[in-house]
Amino acid sequence: MTEKLSLTELQLIIRDSLYMALPGMYWVVAEISEIKENSAGHCYLELIEKHPAEKNVRARIKAIIWSKRYRFLKSFFENITGESLKVSLNILIKAKVEYHELYGLSLIITDIDPAFTIGEMAIKRQLVIKKLEQEGVFSMNKELNIPTAPQKIAVISSKSAAGYSDFINHLTGNSFGYVFYTVLIESAMQGTETESGVISALDRIANNSHLFDLVVIIRGGGSQSDLSWFDSYNIAYHVTQFPLPVITGIGHEKDMSVTDMVANTSLKTPTAVADFLINSVVVAEDHLIEMSSEIKNISSGIIEKNRNRIETSGIRLLPLARIMLAGIKDKLSGRIIEIINIGKEHTYRAGLLPVNLRSRLVSAVKTFSIEKETAIERRRQIIISGTLTSLNKNNIRLVGLEKTLNILKPENVLQRGYTITSINGEILKRSIQANADDIIDTQFIDGTVKSRVVGKT
After folding, report:
1. Which of 16, 30, 101, 270 fits as disulfide partner to 47, beta carbons 3.0 to 4.6 Å?
2. What pLDDT, in 10s, does the model give residues 86-99?
3. Alpha-carbon distance 15 to 19, whole Å?
């Protein structure tokens, strides 16, 4: 073909060929990879197809829902599925192929089948549940025992969530006056950050699990699409492996998320969770009161039984005690008579001993006295002799010390040519004590001389 075409002409040929080849409407299954709504109300999407076992995109095309149709389809889809059109959602659309010379190939969407999306969501949920069951972890958290009176609560929620405020107000304002200790670990509770936020919060609590009795995940009401974030396999798996019981109060009356299913206890609303915790403490208190009453009754029975036994034993023991006392009295009487006879015999013998002992004692005393007098006289002579010798020695020593003191008297030292140097009455013993220009006094035998220090050597 030698005919030359302009780009516009080629584009028109392509468009007409497509319209002739694909004239009707087609139902197409695709995944939303991008979606945005412009100021005019038109919805622009990018649709892709991926194989379930692959991450690579196999097909991609642009799509448009014009504003009038979009308002209807959006409302219809959300009412049926409880889900909004969003990224990663698989949808079944009715569309026609359109080719524009400026914007290229695209699909014009005229209808969306919500039943398909509901089925896809249900299938994904069932796959997650089946995987958890196959791994043998689905009921692991349910096997943990909730403490008898849980009061230390770790809460995973958004601080701004109405459900969190309802939970705290209901818990702290309980009519029984129970005290609960709560710690909020904040996390996004809807949107793409939900999974990472909740998992991070669970990890933080697990690292300090000894501080808590259990974990509560609450968020309050919302759409079905908000609930779907808790169908995440990763969140559910973390809950199954958690060392503490997990209670959920995500806020949906009709449906349960996978996270609800694997949690130890699932309740519909945050206030229901608060009621559950309050009731647990009420049950524990009632149980304690009941146990206390039982212990009291049992104790009273034991005391009464033993009191009766003591009284019966007393009645039985009284005659025996009297018989035993009579026997003991007879034995004591016999022993007294024996002791009296033995005492008389010893007294008689003791009367003979003093006479012999007295004569022996008088003789021994005389001998002892003579020996002691002799020893005392000998020691007296030794003391007198030693005292005189010591006095003579000390007298000689004192004379020598007196002579030494006379020699060391200052006036005698000065007579031998020595002098005494002082500053302000303080005697100088070292040259370091004197400084230049100090006035010093030098004492001689016949007077004192004042001098000024001009240098030191």
Report:
1. 30
2. 888 888 989 999 98
3. 6
166 residue type, one letter:
D
User: Buried b vs exposed e over 368-397: b needs ≥16 C-beta within 10 Å?
Assistant: eeeeeeeeeeeeeeeeeeeeeeeeeeeeee
**How many Å apart are CA 447 and CA 333, to the nearest integer?**
110
From the number of C-beta atoms within 10 Å of its C-beta (0-12, 13-18, 19+), residue 257 rates as buried
pLDDT value at residue 36: 93
Neighbours of 316 (CB within 10 A): 10
CB 32 within 8 Å of CB 89: yes
DSSP string over 182-214? EEEEE---SSTTHHHHHHHHHHHHHHTGGG-SE
- CA–CA separation, 155 and 264 (whole Å): 15
67-81 and 114-134 helices, crossing angle to 10°:
40
- The sign one gets for the Cα dihedral 330, 334, 337, 342 is negative
> Which residue type does 292 have?
S
Q: Which two tokens stand for residue 296?
A: 């009291």
What is the Rg, in whole angstroms, of the alpha carbon atoms belonging to the chain?
58
C-alpha 52/C-alpha 123 separation (Å) is: 13
- CB crowding 67-85: b at 16 or more within 10 Å, else e: eebbeebbeebbeebbbeb
Q: Where are the beta strands (DSSP E) in 57-203?
A: 57-65, 90-100, 104-113, 152-157, 181-186
Sort 112 into a burial class: Cβ within 10 Å, 0-12 / 13-18 / 19+.
buried
Q: Which of 153, 263, 282 is nearest to 215 (CA)?
A: 153
What pLDDT shows up at residue 54?
Answer: 67
Give Dmax (Cα) for the chain. Answer: 175
Note the pLDDT tens digit of each residue in 225-261: 556 778 888 999 999 999 999 999 886 655 678 888 8
**What gap in Å lies between CA 434 and CA 456, rounded to an integer?**
8
